[in-house]
Amino acid sequence: MKMAARLILKVRKGNARSVRLAPQRHTVTDLRLLLIGSGGFGVPAFDALHEKHEGSIAAVITAAPRPSGRDGALVATPVASWARERDLPLLEVERLRAPSTQETIASLDVTVGLLADFGQIVPAEMLRSVPRGILNLHPSLLPVYRGAAPIPAAILAGDQETGVSTILMDEGLDTGPLLAVQRHQLRGDEDAPRLEAQLAQLAADGIVRTLDRYLAGEIVPSAQPAEGVSLTRRLQRSDGEILATWKAEHAHRAWRAYRPWPGVWISLAPALERLKLDVIGAPLAEIDVPLGGLLVHEEVLLLGLKGGALPLLEVTPMGGRRMSGTALIHGRPELLAPHARIRS
User: Fold this and answer.
1) I want to staple 152 with a disulfide (CB 3.0 to 4.6 A). Which of 124, 164, 257, 268 is the partner?
2) In the CATH scheme, what architecture does the domain 237-336 have?
3) Distance from C-alpha of 265 to C-alpha of 324, rounded to nearest angstrom
4) What is 64-114 written as a DSSP string?
5) Region 30-48 average pLDDT
6) What average pLDDT does range 178-191 have in this prediction?
7) Which three-class secondary structure state does DSSP give residue 281?
8) What fold does the segment set 5-231 form as a domain?
9) Where are the domains of the chain?
10) Could you tell me how far CA 322 lies from the centroid of its own chain?
């Protein structure tokens, strides 16, 4: 029978009992911790807490397995794999707000929760039911870049600094009061997977101390600044289309920001509906290429954009295989025709 949630309990004797704890008197010695996450960003922080408070993790909540690949095989989340490797109680949910899921969570009698990279809204009643609340690790300097895509947003904007904010969740979208802010300087060459890994480690370095101090009453949550608020949304495939109106530097940032999803691509329709740009080089300001057109210069395929030419080092045409930019032109020389232009 299909259930909204599946609880896998693999605990040592004595770990499954419930203990009623009076709010505001919790310490790290009577901790019952609920971990909530799906993506890989939260795994290092969860691991740090597991190392420090191994016997205190009441359960791990993550999204249910999703079909993947051409065969549609179900794939567990990174957090689910992490929890299974450590024999932790695991709750895989289709919908967190489903009544059966909430009943199961209520039975765990947790002290405090930590959420990172989960992708579902936490119901208000669940936030209220956890005595010390649910903390959230968010990879931006809140209130900047609230929402689903803070890491790509920081890269796309060319920011010199980002970081991780630990907040106490409320009913808003990343609007809760701050418990800790960790800052990270950007060099300007990061891509999204590398920056996510760096911020995940930064979060892991600080979460044990932040949680312990919060439970001990040494941290008073402070409201986020009223100024500088911005909101990000989930990325869509269309976000990755490079247009002739773009600046070359912006296109290069988009290539770094939109990895692995949605990637960046151009359309030379009707000749070529979509060309995925797998590897591109830094913009070249000194080479003149017609705006929105292609040109081969010294065995490198270049795309003309505002402020410079973009080297297209490796590409994948729709329905084809990955190849060098020059190999594409050897087989499709018509893409160099004067009328061949990407969309504006």
Assistant:
1) 257
2) Roll (3.10)
3) 15
4) PPEEETTTTEEE--HHHHHHHHTT--EEEES-TT-HHHHHHHHTT--SEEE
5) 97
6) 98
7) coil
8) Rossmann fold (3.40.50)
9) 5-231, 237-336
10) 26
Provide the percentage of residues in the chain whose pLDDT is more than 70: 92
Token readout for 5 is: 């949630």
Mode of pairing for the β-strands spanning 323-324 and 308-317: antiparallel
Q: What does the pLDDT average to over 135-156? A: 98
Select from 131, 82, 133 the least CA-distant residue to 109: 131
157 phi/psi in degrees, rounded to 5? -80, -10
Which pair of structure tokens corresponds to residue 12?
């040592």
What strands, in cross-sheet order, belong to the sheet with 57-63? 5-8, 90-93, 57-63, 33-37, 112-116, 134-138, 161-168, 178-185
Instruction: State both tokens at 83.
Output: 């929890």
DSSP 8-state assignment for residue 39:
S
- What is the residue-averaged pLDDT of the chain? 92
Give dist(CA 284, CA 92) in Å, integer: 48
- Is residue 94 within 8 Å of residue 14, measured between CB atoms? no
**Average pLDDT, integer, range 176-187:** 98
Q: Is the dihedral of CA 8, 12, 16, 22 positive or negative?
A: negative
Q: What is the DSSP code string of 300-315?
A: EEEEEEBTEEEEEEEE
Average pLDDT (328-337) is 97
Q: Give backbone dihedrals phi and psi of 37, rounded to 5 degrees, phi first.
A: 180, 165
Query: 185, 161 in Cβ contact below 8 A?
Result: yes
Which pTM does this prediction carry? 0.90
Q: What pLDDT is recorded for position 27?
A: 53
Helix/strand/coil for 245? coil
Query: Model confidence over 270-303: pLDDT tens digits?
Result: 999 999 999 999 999 999 999 999 999 999 999 9
pLDDT band at 7 (very low <50, low <70, confident <90, very high): very low
**Res 330: pLDDT:** 97
- Smallest CA-to-CA distance from 275 within 191, 340, 224 is with 340
Q: What CA–CA distance (Å, rounded) separates 63 from 45?
A: 18
With beta carbons less than 8 A apart as the criterion, state whether 214 and 169 touch: no
